[in-house]
Every structure is written in structure tokens, then in C-alpha cells.
Design a protein that fits this description.
Structural class: mainly alpha
Largest sheet: none
Number of domains: 1
Distance between the termini: 116 Å
Helix content: over 70%
Number of strands: 0
Number of helices: 4
Strand content: under 5%
């Protein structure tokens, strides 16, 4: 009986170590699964941010288009002149163009502004 009791300590240590390894392995698998889900969510959030940015850019660019169109149609085409109010409205509406549009369009809008300013005086 002395032999069986002397093995109880090492056997208990081996069982405890095995249980610790098993629990650690299971926790590791759970963390890996969570990490994969977090990566997928981060990817989806990045895609959503890209779509949202495109939508916001469209809205802002369309506002610039509206300002230029209103300036042309309502002021120049209909009335044939440039009023202070319409010039200020055009200037304010196209002020952000440099940040939202390419250089060609920005230069064109600036040329229109310069010509409108010359015809105003």
C-alpha cells in the first residue's frame, strides 16, 4: 500500500498539468476565434468607411456643382450680369473645390470666378 500512495503525488501532478494544458488550449482556441471575428469586423468597418467617404464626397462635390450651375443659369444666363449676392454665393459655394476636386476643375472654377469679378466692375 505504501507503493500506491507514493505514486499519488506524481499522478496528481500529471493530471493537474494535463488539465491546465487542456484548459489553456481551449482558451487559446477561443481567443483565436475571437481574433478572427474581430479582424472580419474591422474589415467590414473599413469597407463601410470607404463607402461612407465616397457618399460624403459625392454630396460635397454635388454642392459645388449646384453653386456653379446656379451661378451660370440664374445669374448669367437669365439676367446677363453678376450681382454682389450671386458672386458671393458662387464664391462661398465653390470655396471647398480645391479640397474635393482635381486641379483642372478647380482651375476652371477659379477662371470663372476671375472673369465674373472682372465683369462685375
Amino acid at each position: 500500500m505504501c507503493n500506491i500512495v507514493s505514486f499519488a503525488g506524481p499522478i496528481a501532478t500529471i493530471v493537474a498539468a494535463s488539465a491546465a494544458v487542456f484548459v489553456t488550449w481551449r482558451i487559446g482556441r477561443g481567443q483565436l476565434s475571437i481574433a478572427k471575428q474581430q479582424a472580419a469586423i474591422a474589415q467590414q468597418q473599413a469597407e463601410l468607411a470607404t463607402v461612407r467617404l465616397q457618399h460624403e464626397l459625392y454630396d460635397r462635390r454635388f454642392a459645388i456643382f449646384e453653386a456653379a450651375r446656379n451661378f451660370f443659369v440664374h445669374q448669367i444666363y437669365v439676367y446677363g450680369n453678376v450681382s454682389d449676392e450671386s458672386y458671393k454665393s458662387y464664391f462661398k459655394g465653390t470655396a471647398d473645390a480645391v479640397f474635393l476636386l482635381d486641379e483642372t476643375v478647380t482651375d476652371y472654377l477659379e477662371e470663372i470666378r476671375t472673369k465674373a469679378l472682372r465683369t462685375k466692375f
